Amino acid sequence: MIEKGRNVMLTVREVAESLRVSPTCVYQLIEKGKIACHRIGLGRGAIRVCESDLAGYVESCRKPGNKTAMRPPRPRGRLRHLKQ
Fold first, then answer.
1. Which residues of 35-73 are buried (b: 16+ CB within 10 A; e: fewer)?
2. What is the enclosing helix (H) or strand (E) of 50?
3. Rounded CA gap, 14 and 61, in Å?
4. Among candidates 5, 82, 3, which has minimal Cα distance to 51?
5. For residue 48, what is the enclosing H or E element?
6. Which of 24, 2, 6, 7 is closest to 15 using CA atoms?
7. pLDDT of 27-48, one tens digit each?
8. pTM here?
9. Looking at the predicted structure, is the pLDDT value of residue 72 above 60?
10. How many whole angstroms separate alpha carbon 70 and alpha carbon 40?
């Protein structure tokens, strides 16, 4: 049994649920090389994603200085198309 770092392998469905996206989106991210995966088994194999690879992908999506606070709305200019 492989115990080294106790890195759990997730299915595509589990990854999709974790990211709250569709499995199709996960397949596209894997195909584009954004999420690393392993193919386990014969033929095409079952796709599995390590939790650490998923965490690395999520971290790479973070924008620096991105806070959860929303920007204040921009002041609106006059509506030129309306006659006043």
1. bebeeeeeeeeebbbbbebbeebeeeeeeeeeeeeeeee
2. strand 46-50
3. 19
4. 5
5. strand 46-50
6. 24
7. 999 999 999 999 999 888 899 9
8. 0.68
9. yes
10. 43
